[in-house]
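Async update (no meeting this week)

Hi team, since we skipped the sync, here's where things stand on the single-chain job. The sequence we agreed to prioritize is pasted below, unchanged from the tracker. I ran it this morning and attached the output directly underneath so nobody has to dig for it. Comments welcome in thread, and please keep replies under the output.
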Amino acid sequence: MSVEYSNGNKNGNTNGSTNGVKYVKLFDNRRFITNYLVNQLEENLSNSKLEQFKINKVIENAIHWCLVNGFVLVPKSRKQEDLMVVTYLPFTLFPTPFEKTHFQQVIDLQPHVNELFNKISTNEDFMNKSFENLTMIDQFLGNLWSLYKRAKVEGYSQKINLSILRTDYMLHQRDDHISMKQVEINTIAAGFGYVSTKATMLHKEILKWTGNYDALNRIPHNEPVVKMAQGFAKAWRLYNVPSSIVLFIVLDIEINIADQRHLEYEIKKQEPLIEVHRCTLMELNKYGRLDKDKTLYFFDKEVSIVYFRAGYDPSHFESQTEWDTLYRIEISKAIKCPNIGTFLAGMKKIQESISIDENLEYFCNSNKDLLKSVFAEFFLLNTQVDLYFWIECLFFYLKFRKIYKKYWKIQKIMYSSHREKEVEIISTIKI
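Output:
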C-alpha cells in the first residue's frame, strides 16, 4: 500500500529531501518524514481554484471507484434488515512513503515472527506465567484460558493449525534515526487482506489521475488475499475430505462483509470444490453437532476448517452458549484458524512478555536480536515509574493534538501533592 523510496545519505539538514522522502522541521530538532505528493497537492490547492476543482473531481472519482470495486464496509449504524446499505472505506488520497529497506526488512522478518508465535501458542507454562495475575481480574481472558486448559486435558483431535497473522508496524523516529517498530500482532480475525489488495489498486489509479506516473513503479506488489486463500486451499486438502466445508464464524451484524466475501470468492476461485458457509456461534450451536469421533458438522455437512471472524471480543459472548460452542469447536477434528492457543499468543500481555530479553531468548536464541530490534517498547502501569513516564508521553500527545481540556485536567492531578491519585489519572485518560 505504500510508495517505495530508495535509501540516501542524510546530510544533517533539518529541511531537505532524500530521493523523494522529504524531511521538514517541526518545533524542535527532530525530522519527520512527510509525503511530498501531499505537500505538492497542498501547494497547488492554495494557488489555484482550478486545482481545487480538479482535486475534488479526483476525490469523487476515487469514491466511485471504491463503491464499484467493493472497497466498502457496512456502516455500524445500519439496522439488521438493511442489507443493501454500504459506504466506502476511509482511505488516504496518496500512499504513505517509507524507505525500501524498511519494507524489505519486515517482509524478511515475518517467517521468524510466524515461528515465534507458533512456539508460544503451544507453551502452556510460558503463557501461564504471563497471564497468572490477569486471569483473576479479566473475565474474558480467564474464560479463554480455562477453555485452553480444558481442551488440553480433553485432548486435541486435530494437529493441523491454520494461522493468518497480521503484523502491524509504525515508523519510529529517535533523533535522526528512523526505524520500523512492531506495535501489534493480530492472531485472530486478521482481516483486510482483500481491502489491502484493493487499496494498492486504488492508489495506483489516483497516481495516474494526478499525473504522478513516476511513483507507479515504486509501489510494491501487494495481494495478501491471494496468499490467504492459498492457505485455506492447502489446509482443506490436508483435511482430505472432498465433501467437507469451510465455515466462517461471523457476527450477527457484520461491517466487513466485502473483505470477508472476497476472501471467500478467492478461495473458491483457487479451489472450486470448496464450499464456504457463514454462521454465528449461536447458529452453529443450533444447527451444528459434534459427533463422538469429534467430527464437527453444520447442517449435516462435515466441517474441515473453522475460520474465526468473530469471537475475539467479550461482546461476542452474550451467554454461556457461545462459550460452550467455542469449546466444541476447539476439541473437534476441524482445523481451526486460529485455535485458542494461537489466539492467546496474540494477547498484548504476551507481546510485553517476549519484549523481555530472557523470555525472547528462550524461544529464539539465534534470531533474538533481529526480532528485538523491531519490537516497540512496552510500559506497564503497575509501577509508579512507568506510570508517570507514560503520563508524560500522553502530555506530549495531548498538547500536539491541542486537546487542552483533558491535558490540563490530567496535569492538575499529576502535579498535585497527593501522589495516591494514580487511579484518578487513569480514569481521566479513559474519558
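Quick observations from my side:
Residues 391 and 414 are 8 Å apart (CA to CA).
The longest strand covers residues 177-186.
Reply here if anything looks off.
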